[in-house]
Amino acid sequence: MGRLVSDAQDRPREASVAVSPGLNVAGVSLRGNSLLGEAFLWESIAARPGLVFSERLVAEDLKRLAETYADQGLPHAKVSAADFRLDDRGLYFVYRIEEGPPVTVEEVRFAGQRQTKLQTLKRLAGIREGMRFSRQPVEKARVRLVKSGLFRGVSQPGLSSGSGPGKETLVFRVEESSYNSLFGAVGYSRDDSRPDGWLTGRIDLAFSNLAGTGQQARVSWQRLSRENSRLSAEYSAPWIFRWDIGFREIGRASCRERV
After folding, report:
1. Confidence grade of residue 248 (pLDDT, cut at 50, 70, 90)
2. Where would you tag: which of 115, 131, 191, 211 has the fewest CB atoms within 10 A of its CB?
């Protein structure tokens, strides 16, 4: 028989369990868990006596068990299916668990950071240094970074060793965008009925990450005829002072020249 192995950061591998089609699960047990209780872990296990055995069934169990450990601050836990035994009732096997040490996030880093301030990135992510690692808050942090609109891409975060056992650095890899843009065309126009001319055209000026703080501003000017011109300005911020409340202000003005 083969062996299936999974951890919180890898897909199940060595998927080489060879069994006959339609073979039933006769028994499943857990070994190696001490930090998390067996009753709690069984909530993540779908394999039960009487179900038809499949590699997919086991692989999904392994993935859920590894994620359960990662949610409880144990991201290095490894779970494997082993000790397969067959009799006339069906297949018996064991989920072996190597729990690994609890992990505290000692530092949060952002590989690829160029213009955005570190404090802005940390506030966007919402991960506090010194917190116990948990998979779900880390995944939510990545989603918040993506939704901020400041980055072309944000990869799945990883852990690297810190200053001592159980202390690790959480690393997000970000690809920053080009934050400032200028678009427009301006010309000078005049007609024979008047001696003076006028500027005509359109200009759009956008700043998507002012001073690396995540604040955004846009100014737009347009004049397509001598009599009318339009100026608009927008400003937004991801939060106001210490409050995590977004802010947006829009101002518009029109000017009509008497002929």
Report:
1. low
2. 191
Spatial contact of 169 and 162, defined as CB atoms under 8 Å apart: yes
Dihedral angle over CA of 48, 52, 58, 64, nearest 10: -50
29 burial class (0-12, 13-18, 19+ CB within 10 angstroms)?
exposed
pLDDT digits (tens, 9 = 90+) for 167-225: 999 999 999 887 777 787 877 777 766 667 777 888 888 888 888 888 888 888 888 77
Residue 83 — left, alpha, or beta (φ > 0 → left; ψ -120 to 50 → alpha)? left
Per DSSP, 218 falls in state: E
Domains of the chain: 4-98 (3.10.20.310), 104-176 (3.10.20.310), 180-256 (no CATH)
Q: Are 106 and 168 in contact (CB under 8 A)?
A: yes
For 143, which DSSP code? H
Residue with tokens 């494997």: 80
**Packing angle of the helix pair 55-71, 135-147 (nearest 10 deg):** 90
